[in-house]
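Protocol step 4 of 6: record predicted structures for both targets in the notebook before any analysis. Target 1:
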Amino acid sequence: MTVSVLVPSSLSREAEDKREATRKLGYVARAATIFRADRLVVYPDRDGETGQFDGGFVSTVLRYAATPPYLRNEAWGMRDELEYAGVLPPLRAMSQTGSESTGSGSSRQGIVTEVGPEGRVRVNCGLQHPISLNVPPKMAVEEGERVTVRISSRRPVRAKLVDEPLPGLSIEQTDLRAALGREDAGVRIAASRFGEHLTVGRLETLAGRTKRDGMTVAFGAPERGLPAILGIEESAIEASSGQGDAADNGVEPTADPGFDLWLNTVPDQGSEVVRTEEALFATLAPLSLRE
């Protein structure tokens, strides 16, 4: 089961300064981490971008936030986009293979600091010192490359380099339609206040599907929701709420990038505007419930 969260490149469009924009992105990354998202995808919304907080800024800050703290200085150095990286809330991501990120049998990210002879490399993976590891057959690594390290013991240190995807939250940039078209997209949900209201009864069937197939949930930007980004009439979405998948929901096929349903997870919102980072918590929390 794969969980993907899609956010627009215009995510920080309303931020007054770089500090505020950075903090906002930190809470987006934290929401994705709390609910164990596998991917956080930034899709383009060029018309909604303002000033310096474009897709490049958004992706850089999110990638930095998703980088383990022990690798940040070595992996990123000094960059203008990260001027206020200190305000990012810690993600403290749990390992998916161990009891915690430092636990026995856990996987963690490392960075290759030196490529030596006889198929050995030195890797900084957050232990007291870089450790020397054998490179698995058919796996090629370069200095500065990020790798996955499986740690079975810390005292004494027992670890091995494994040819597996990096653990933790993956940050990507891709087109919205392409993200929804992935084989592992699962249930494709558009989060919008114009969508079908999420009820207890609807959640019971929907949660079963997301647990089995996974899900991809797309969000809009401040003052610029998904209908505006996609050029879809809000009335078309409202009229079709509760009628099933995107092919029959009244939305023009040329405008709909491939959603299965439009969903309003805050049906009785008390604030005129629900911020994107707030919408992530409000949406991913109920969709993560299990029987």
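Target 2:
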Amino acid sequence: MKIKCDYCGAMIDETNDRCPSCGAPLSGANRTANEQPKTIEELKAWYIAHHLPPEEITRFFIGKNITEPMAFGIYRDGNGDFVVYKNKASGERAVRYKGADEKYAVNELYQRLKAEIADQKGNRPVSNAYQQPQQKKSKKKKGCLIAIIIFVVLAMLTAIFDHSAPNGYYNYKGTEYYRQGSSWYYYDKEQDDWLKSYDDPDITDKNAKDYKTYHQSGKSFEESCWYNSGSHSDDSSWDNDSDWDSGSDSWDSGSTDWDSDW
């Protein structure tokens, strides 16, 4: 399988120890953390690498057949089939997938886990620890007015000098990209999915005319987990590809929709 060098962006064989283009080392640990997992063991490693709370907190059980209510999971049964399931609040089990394709089964739970992480981040309460006392309201209003003026000025300057490419699909040096806000994503043919590009392609409105906005991949960006989970937004909390930067007590599995099939 081809992987992307974190330093120069070249697509190279995952078996290489170093990038033949720039010579940068390719860490197996980094690949496990940054790439989409394809096996149950890789999904376990991905879970740990992204500092997620214990499975009893998130209710995502990887490699386990949990029968109690309110649980997502994946395991291999006695017949060798991979089973992806969701136990509803009532205890009823909805089987998402059962079959011999481990990569497909893992992807089903992986996408659902990433969507849940995005939902959990979106449900975090905003801290009020730094609210101004009531007697300072006038100063607060004045500060807000100044902030608004600065924002408007910066927005006007950005409109004048920003030459970045508009949102949409681009074909750049043989790779299909999608721009959303300030982020770029590229289509990986091997995985038939969109991955976040950490090295932005050199596409601006000055050369965008050379790359028509189009879509030729087997899967549109709108179908990917990056779009559906809300991770395509400019929220910096998603920059580390699902890293969980809060304690276990900030994950509330009770907010999950346990009545739906998935």
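Step 5 preliminary note on target 2. Residues 137-161 form the longest helix (25 residues). Helices lie at 28-34, 40-49, 55-58, 102-122, 137-161, 225-228.
Proceed to step 6 after PI sign-off.
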